[in-house]
Amino acid sequence: EVQLVESGGVVVQPGGSLRLSCAASGFPFDDYPMHWVRQAPGKGLEWVSVISWDGTSTYSTDSVKGRFTITRDNNKDSLYLQMNSLRTEDTAFYYCAKGLDSNLWTYFDSWGQGTLVTVSS
Amino acid sequence: DIHMTQSPSSLSASVGDRVTITCRASQGISNYLAWYQQKPGKVPKLLIYAASTLQSGVPSRFSGSGSGTDFTLTISSLQPEDVATYYCQNYNSAPPITFGQGTRLEIK
Hints:
The structure holds 2 protein chains of 2 kinds. Chain A contains no helices and 11 strands. Chain A is mostly beta strands. In chain A, a hairpin with a 5-residue loop joins strand 4 (about 35-40) and strand 5 (about 45-50). In chain B, strands 2, 4, 5, 6, 9, 10 and 11 form a 7-stranded mixed beta sheet that branches. A 4-stranded antiparallel beta sheet of chain B has the order 1-3-8-7, with no helix packed on it. Chain B is globular and about 35 Å long.
């Protein structure tokens, strides 16, 4: 059974930094690109970032470019999101998500439970 | 970026009703469209991909159709457990991957 478990969400001040983690199990982690998707409380879904299976290719939505960095450690079956220069509008539940196949651009068949990041003074 | 617009934003229907939600892409995306169901307090669940392919384990009352710019999600006979918010997702011409704003479905 696929399991994705996020951690690292806390309350942080505007301008602060945070690193989210996602521990994966139940599938060959290094075969799949991985994504971060976020959802502000009571709002819709917003794709954030993707990383290729080997970590050599990454893409992010415009609003986080230059501030967020997605990385992975295939030896630890883990995905990360380094978040810098945080803004109040980054407040959201952050989900790691796995695609159904090896394509970077795909739909998501597995989601973690999410971790809440609150940016507030 | 490709913008996805869902309609309606919310709807209320009776148990047993046929329910249709539409999703329109700002430009053609072939059939690179997925639908998700998100129940209150829960994680999104994949219902349909490639516009019309039902994900394993999803009840057959759910169906999807469309290609290009116009897509529909249909529930043939609404059940109480279908109360949720439904999202469409474009995965063509990415980045970025884009979602519709959501359609909130309630029981009348």
